[in-house]
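Hi, can you check this record?
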Amino acid sequence: MVFSTIAFLFQFLPIFLLAYYATPQKYRNITLVIGSLVFYAIGSGWYTLLLLLSLLINYGLSRMISGTHARHPESAKHYLIAGLIYNFGLLVVFKYTNFLIGNLNSLLSIFHTAIPKVSLVMPLGISFFTFQITSYLIDVYTGKTRPARSILDLGVYLCMFPQLISGPICMYSEIQPQLKNRRVDVRLLEEGMETFVLGLSAKTLLANPMGGLWNNLSVIGYDSISTPYAWLGAFAYSFQIYFDFSGYSMMAIGVGKMLGFQLPQNFNLPYMSGTAGEFWRRWHITLGRWFKNYIYFPLGGSRVGKWKTMRNMLAVWAFTGLWHGASWNFVLWGLIFFVLLTLEKNVYGKFLERTHLLKHAYIIFIIPLTWMVFAIPDMHQLGTYFTRLFPFLTSDEVQSNTRDAVQAFHNYWKILVPCVLFSTPLPLMYYKKFRKSGFCLLLLLILFVLSIRAMMTQTNNPFLYFQF
């Protein structure tokens, strides 16, 4: 179920909140888990059983890891390995089977044979809840956190519907203190509703219209667009994916507050960065934290010399690319960031840090290009798009008529301008300053009404990160 739908806002959420608030505090975790499973079942059907199976298996493994670690550390290690194989095995089967078969068929084509692809539908949120439950197992093994006292506690951590499908990716140590000692008061409820409305408006009033510009460009065909239109499309997709995912994260954090939980921040104005490294410290913060804690640091981080540090970064970015999707464009996208971060670290990073305008111009130029690699899975089409962005890359004649870009800008400038503005710190600064004023509350009400209107009229309302 998508947060930005009438069904969620006026059916599921109010019914669930009434049941949740009516439940005595010591039983609210039961209500939360049941409601979360219903939420997941609405969108995923029988895959809810798979989620429950993961909960049962990982709970049992964590108890066995904790119980044997002191006396039989080798057994604890085997239990951890079993958990990693199970969790990542499910992810590989559902997300990467056909990708692996397709690549194997490319090799088998010389023998004029092929393996049939498998008809599999990827469970919603499997990339997110796999990383979340795996971090729990590893932290129990390393002693960073104690195992869940009950399967209900772990169920809340794994299944809590605000962050189940698209994060933020939480650590058990963040949620564990809140499992028993949380209260819902008027202040948290108010803050949660405000945060939810801001996220909802970012999704419906900014991301979706920008998605319309990008979709229109894609329908026309990349070989038929002018260079200005190609650049406009790159910026449109950059805004779409930012306000789509950051909007979802805000809604998740807002609903979490309504339930008494403080979920971790996932975005911090990434387009205000001055380097690609800083961009990734501000974008999808909880995913970057996961790769740092469970891939980069265990490999030695930056403490193992220059070349091994580069190896560690390569591993992180190869996995980051693959995590986002089973396609070679995602692998290429991850490797591009590896190259950018390596160059910043060893070549021009210090120079960028000493500048102001230049480093921001660098991000404004480079990040939309990386998003094009992310957005276009077909390598031939990707190459065509880049020849439109940079006509000198091809000897073919590229359309010089810029009327397509002029028409698109005329249609979308009223959305482009707010997208630029809300990518800066100014709106947040003024929101915090005047948050308690009547004007601000009126503005939030207007944004909510406009969002409802948009949800009733827009035909394109998917969350991009649901597919990852």
